[in-house]
Every structure is written in structure tokens, then in C-alpha cells.
Amino acid sequence: MDQHRHRFDQLAWPAAQRAAQQAGATVIWPFGACEQHGPQLPLATDAVFAEGIIDAVLKQLDPTLPIWRLPSQSIGFSPEHQAFPGTLTLSADLILQLVSEVGAQLAAIGIHRLVLFNAHGGQIGLLQVAARQLRARCPAMAVLPCFLWSGVDGLADLLPIHERDNGLHAGQAETSLMLHMAPHLVGDERPVDGLPEVDPPLGWSLEGAAPCAWLTNDLSKSGVIGDSRQASAALGSSLHHLLIHHWRERFEALLATEWPPLESRLQNSSTS
Questions:
Q1: How buried is 257 (Cβ within 10 angstroms: 0-12 exposed, 13-18 middle, 19+ buried)?
Q2: How is the chain split into domains, by residue range?
Q3: Architecture of the 8-261 domain
Q4: Mean pLDDT by 10 residues, the chain (272 residues)
Q5: Model's pTM, two decimal places?
């Protein structure tokens, strides 16, 4: 199979037109960031993960499935990391406009679903808002904002609880995954930093049910929030396999259905 079979941007326009007209035509838009990830990981960490995982998933899917991906959006919404040189961030308004403009053009040619496949935790909420606004603008196209690490069964078996709860950025998980996916981009330092010295008040946390809008330099001198000391390529390989398996199953299940329900389709099915 042509390794570029699922690249929407590498189709000629007649092929793109035919792709958009297929039943259930689905486009994935990987979202990363260009932001500090401590002294050991590259600025492009989230983009490397989003693009690498989705490409591995697409290679494992049935090549006849109507699914393609766009070029990655490699600069995102990262104001929390701006105190660290190298971080580039777009404004929230610009991200909202970007998703709206590109999404509307995909909807106009008939794309059935747009998946915002995001690997940067700092823009989860923003992409959910962008998805809702785009859906309102383009009611015939489903929009699904996803986060790389969300809902992945088995993470609890691979990561210690303190890293699952507090390893928010460039800790054991991200350092390990990069050691597996692109070891040439990983530096020698293994910081432990950014972990709260004082427990938050009852019911409150950095992230979770009652989060706060933290900035990285509130917490960390290195840019790391977590403990990267036990990171390893072996753990990264296990995480890589787990993420690919999870998202392959999710996309296979999605493409086997007409999910999510849209009013226009429900009306068409009720009159047929």
C-alpha cells in the first residue's frame, strides 16, 4: 500500500473530490504545539506525537476505508509556556478562526466527519470550543475533538500513580515515548520538577475536577512538571503500542457507523 494513501493534501483535486463524496468520508487534523518541553525534549514534542501516532494508526487500517489526514497544525495555543524561550503560541481567537475556516471548506466539499486529533493538553478546552462553533456553522459535518492520552485503557498499568496524577508535562510518559519514537531528539538530562510542595486545598488541583489556570513558571524552573528520571525507551515502546492499539480500535469503530447523529441525517432517514 502506498504509505501516502491517507494524506489528503497529497491527493490531486479530482481524487480529493471523490474522497469527499464517499459515504462516511472522515478527515483527521493532527494538532501539536511548538513549546518548551524541559531541557531534554524538543519544542515539537506534541506535534511529533500527534503525527507519529496517527500515521501509525492509518497504516494499520483497511486501506479502503474513507479516512485521510491533513498536514499537522504544529503551532498551537501555549501561553502557559511563554516564559521559556522557544515557545511559540497563537492566540485563542486565531485558533478558533483557523478551525472554523478550514473546517468550513472541508464541509463545503462534503466531508462527513472532521476529527481534531490533539496531543497538547493545554488546548483541549479550546479545541472543544472550536469544534462546537464549527459544528454550529456547518451542521452537516460532525466534528470530534480528541486528546491523544484521554481514555486510553492500560495507562495505569504502565505509569506510577504519582506520574499519572502529577506528571503533566515532559515527565516520565512523554520522555519515554520520545525515547522510543525519536531518540535522537532527546537530551541527557532527566529532571524532576514542578511537583507541588504543598498539597492543594481539599477538592482542588492543578488539573482535574476543580483545576487552576497555572503557568509553567509558577511551578517549575526547568519546564518539566513531573519526574522524568525513570523514563526509558522500553516504557516508550509499551506506551506507543498502547496508544496505537487504542486509536486504531476507536477509528475502526467510528468508521463502521454513522456516528455521531446529526439532525440533517436523522431527518433524511426518517423520510426515506
A1: exposed
A2: 8-261
A3: 3-Layer(aba) Sandwich (3.40)
A4: 79 98 97 98 98 98 97 98 98 98 98 98 98 97 98 96 92 98 98 86 85 94 97 98 98 96 61 46
A5: 0.94
